[in-house]
Write a structure and sequence with these properties.
By secondary structure, the chain is an alpha/beta fold. About 20% of the residues lie in helices and about 25% in strands. The chain is built from 5 helices and 13 strands. The strands form 4 sheets. Strands 5-4-1-8-11-12-13 form a 7-stranded mixed beta sheet, sandwiched between helices. A two-stranded antiparallel sheet has the order 2-3. A hairpin with a 2-residue loop joins strand 9 and strand 10. The chain starts with a helix and ends in a 7-residue tail after the last strand.
Length: about 200
Amino acid sequence: MNRRNWIQKRKQIPNKQERNFRIACGLLPFFKRYPSIGIYLPILEEVDVLDHCGFQLYDQPNDQHYVYRDSKLLSKSEFEAIQWSAPKVESESVMRFYPLDQLERGAFGILEPKGEKSGQQEVIPSMIIVPLVAFCDGYRKGYGKGYYDRYLQNHPQSLRVGIAFDQQEASFIHEQWDQRLDVIITETRVLIYPRCSEE
């Protein structure tokens, strides 16, 4: 099965709102342990935990950013205690994380931080929530550009947490440059993949 088929399969998964909530619940223990969290801004019906974690998009012309809204999972003080950031694609090979206080539409039409041009300082998250198209034994298939694999390779100190629906589990052979995740959280499971000692 290729990426297009996996994406189409993901779009057909029912009851996403309930599944997203269960995945957000699985993330909660990690939120309490990691003070700096990189989180992706979902597209193409990826797992979306933003709502359940207290994110609300303030969306006005030339002023887009996330603010806190009441959440069942995180209080305002818990939410604000975390340094949240999101990825920004800066070139064909470079992705960096910046705060969520100034956003714009990026090269692929994806909402992302404005970055250094607006005076934002780069953030190195202690935990990164990683999107995926499919997963197998801790490895992920993304959209094929390699941004996350390069970033994870260059920042081994960050905990790598993938989030996915159960139906996204697949069978595939990973490439040698693919970076294995530390954790994958689905609506029914928390899968742990210890790193090898050489990592």
